[in-house]
Write a structure and sequence with these properties.
Two copies of one chain form a homodimer. Chain A is built from seven helices and 24 strands. Chain A is α+β, with helices and mostly antiparallel strands. In chain A, strands 7-4-6-5-9-8 form a six-stranded mixed β-sheet, with no helix packed on it. In chain A, strands 14-13-15-19-18-16 form a six-stranded mixed β-sheet, with helices on both faces. In chain A, strand 13, helix 3 and strand 14 form a beta-alpha-beta unit.
Chain lengths: 397, 397
């Protein structure tokens, strides 16, 4: 069976996928389990910080009108540890011992640092000198009540989770992580096969599942299918019904067993050929409205396709945009192989430029785990070492 | 109780911690659960890749001496799908249909792409033209048997896990993630307290626990302690016995309730004062040989201290070095506040330079989740906008 295919550009393909309707779902999660989720609504301060006049140092709190004629002696009437309070009014000549972080009584105007004092016998203390600053952080000086402290759309990392804790927020609204299923097709995949008999182990399944997890998807399963059109059709119908996104690998090239390409034709096909290598047979379609990204079985094409096509969708389900950032890089090596299509290679952009492999290793397989970017070799021209090329930074590498 | 403290520099403190003996433990984990672990031994290819002569395209395999006089007709004697094999020898004028990724029979010299052929009736096919290349990837062309494909010390990401899968490696030796306990001290921390009464919610516990997890530690617990010397001593004795590293927050400043500083003196104290702000009372000691990093209760000092002191240790337990990378940045704003010590601020280094806060927010608390670097303001000089400063990039931000 030969399918009609018209190659479109990478940019056109990305636009077609960007046109898919994606409806992020909002769920409530406990703050202690919110790490890695994206906040769905602004976090506003339920109370100011500090919520009380806070001492910046260990020292002695004194009244405003006692703040003169140093050195002079005081009577310490109470000790205020962090978490404690002292409510009674001070008289002139009295002071309270105040710890770092403790609540400063209302009538205390200044905290004199311990270093500027001398303990005497009993409750007596000598304050040697005043300080230029009050050493008191006033209510709301750091965060005002109702101030926006984390905007909606922020991915919650350790720092953000600590902000939730600081405000005693026990539950937050976040975007539900999209449910993603991964399907590896091909009779050549077999778990206990002898590799020399034409079989290969399924490495694209773990690759796509790992990448989806690294990008905060909820991976519901990794499936392996032999080359069987009806079984593929049935599995995809079930998986699209149960998931937000299905990513497949294999079964898209021009060939008799390329069932994904056939199933794309039976559904709402977005594209089935791209003017890029690797990954020119990359296909995308909607099955009852649910997106299926059908990548080729080539590991590099799988890797590139995940980042260019699946990752932006996974982000959109979480109210965000792709984390891939475009940039420019200097080629470490030339590339003279003629290309019908632009070539998008995964590479390492380091101190000595951008190259296919950071450590001089040759295999395509082992380049994936080292890659921190993609770079483009234009189709119509040979490029030489030192030339500037378009790159796309892979996040968190 | 006043303790003797001598301030040492950040670099000296780091060196003292680097001098601690750390013995990484090696464990076996299933490859499917190996994501985020660091490989403890080189992964060498148990078989070459490809393990068989592999077709790069869908097409027809022909003998070497039939590779001439095109166009000419052939009889197709078999179809070899990916994962299948064809063993019998071809005769002149015969060809085999071969799919992308399939095993090419030994006697086939070249695979002619489908696009360069025409199907005729029955098993007959016309090959229109030859190709310059064989379109066959020879055994071991990508990875030789026993070649090192992932070096020891590599943190396993999705790409690396896919390499394990490609070689059918079901279990690997990795470094055990260090067991890390977090202790937040201070009577001011209380879960159901009214914040206006001088209490604060414990945000440093979740911060340190989240950071430790982001850095591949096995966080065994987050503990809260009131200011009680004996209880602190007992908890630390238990936690150091059960963990590889204990990180505490609070209780290190100059003051009566600063029990961590006292306990440090009773043990093998590495340092208890640093010539830096925030975090000058940062303390580190060994309790029966186990490291305790005692950070101050200031959230920024906690954050900075985690990255400069705890993170390198967590990495060392996994056979690695810190992921913090030094660099240079241009100050967006000047900083005229006089400092006794160098100031290490967390900041955002972006297109418009490095600044305390990326989005113009003022609170120290909300700066942590946005920070992608630290930068240094020297203690002896005022710095102005546009000046170059030392920065340290925080990984994965």
């Amino acid at each position: 069976m030969y399918l009609k295919r018209t190659a479109i550009s990478l940019e056109e393909a990305k636009e077609k996928l960007a046109g898919i309707t994606v409806t992020p779902k909002v769920v409530r999660v406990k703050s202690v389990e919110a790490h890695g989720f994206v906040l769905a609504e602004d976090l506003r301060a339920p109370f100011p910080i500090p919520a009380f006049r806070r001492s910046g140092y260990d020292g002695y709190g004194i009244l405003a009108h006692d703040d003169e004629d140093f050195p002079r002696e005081f009577t310490m009437v109470d000790e205020v540890g962090a978490g404690s309070t002292h409510e009674s009014a001070l008289k002139s000549g009295e002071c309270v011992r105040i710890m770092t972080g403790a609540k400063v009584p209302d009538d205390v105007a200044k905290v004199i640092m311990l270093e500027d004092t001398e303990a005497l016998s009993g409750n007596r203390v000598r304050i040697l000198r005043t300080s230029a600053k009050s050493n008191i952080t006033e209510i709301g000086e750091e965060v005002a009540r109702d101030e926006r402290v984390i905007p909606a759309g922020t991915r919650l990392n350790a720092g953000a989770v600590s902000v939730l804790a600081a405000f005693g927020v026990s539950e937050v609204s976040v975007y539900k992580k999209p449910r993603v299923a991964v399907v590896a097709t091909g009779s050549e995949l077999a778990e206990n096969a002898r590799p020399e008999d034409g079989k290969i182990y399924n490495s694209n399944g773990p690759l796509l599942s790992g990448l989806a997890q690294e990008n905060d998807a909820d991976v519901t399963g990794v499936y392996e299918l032999t080359d069987d059109l009806e079984a593929t059709r049935e599995l995809l119908a079930r998986l699209t019904a149960e998931n937000d996104l299905v990513i497949t690998t294999g079964g898209v090239s021009v060939g008799d067993f390329d069932f994904l390409a056939v199933i794309a034709q039976e559904n709402d096909c977005l594209f089935n050929k791209l003017a890029m290598r690797p990954g020119s047979p990359t296909t995308a379609f909607l099955m009852k409205g649910k997106p299926v990204i059908a990548l080729s079985g080539n590991p590099s094409a799988c890797f590139t396709g995940f980042w260019f096509f699946a990752e932006p969708l996974i982000r959109r389900f979480q109210g965000q945009t792709t984390r891939i950032r475009p940039g420019r890089g200097i080629l470490r090596d030339g590339y003279t192989k003629k290309n019908e299509f632009d070539r998008y290679l995964n590479g390492v952009n380091g101190a000595d430029g951008v190259s296919l492999n950071g450590h001089g290793q040759s295999s395509e397989l082992s380049s994936l785990y080292q890659a921190n970017c993609f770079y483009r070799i234009p189709h119509d021209t040979a490029v030489t070492a030192g030339e500037e090329v378009a790159i796309w930074w892979i996040p968190e590498r």
